[in-house]
Amino acid sequence: MTTSPPSPAVRVLLVDDHAVVRQGLRLFLGLDPQIEVVGEAANGEEALAEADALIPDVIVMDLMMPVMDGITATRALRKRLPDTEIIALTSTLEEHKVNGAIEAGAISYMLKDASSDTLADAIHAAARGEVRLHPEAAKRLVRDFRGGEMRETLTPKETIVLQLIAHGYSNRDIAADQGVSEATVKTHVSRLLGKLGLDSRTQAALYALKQGIASLDGVEL
What we know:
Pfam families: GerE, Response_reg
Protein name: DNA-binding NarL/FixJ family response regulator
Domain Response regulatory: 11-127
Domain HTH luxR-type: 147-212
CATH class of the largest domain: Alpha Beta
CATH topology of the largest domain: Rossmann fold
InterPro entries: CheY-like_superfamily, NreC/VraR/RcsB-like_REC, Sig_transdc_resp-reg_C-effctor, Sig_transdc_resp-reg_receiver, Tscrpt_reg_LuxR_C, WalR-like
């Protein structure tokens, strides 16, 4: 009987202007054998350089930093490294920070008081393309979300895919649930984002919640 090789560890870049915070995150995340912290940065400018050199799977990004803040860095990194996901990890729920981080392209929004298990789960989820939001951040985002202008009506299949995105499913999970290929799911996701005038899965999840296509009670936050 053969066994499948273990999945490679998620490669993570930590970005925070406080060395003690980075040290604590490295210590806690080091307890998870499927997470590898490959580098650190003290501000957004350093994050750009480190990310270019390391090409991490996930970046854990503080928002309030000198030289270059996390929102500006997130926006730049999404253009430079579209396959790298970014988790906003901060101490504030100020509306302009929450909205700014998601609009810049962060897939998740977490607070620094989150448990190590919660953060590790968010990192693994981000690597799979899944959304994780602090519950209060999710409520504010849904309330304030404007979204794009609907350009075409979604098909029934696209509506189901949108619901599953809002419920935290990855493309692989959606493919298994719907009995189709992952490539087919990617096509559905691309089309529905275009029809809704949206840029990311996180925005799609917020749209679904705002329109009542999915509910906060059922979303993994």
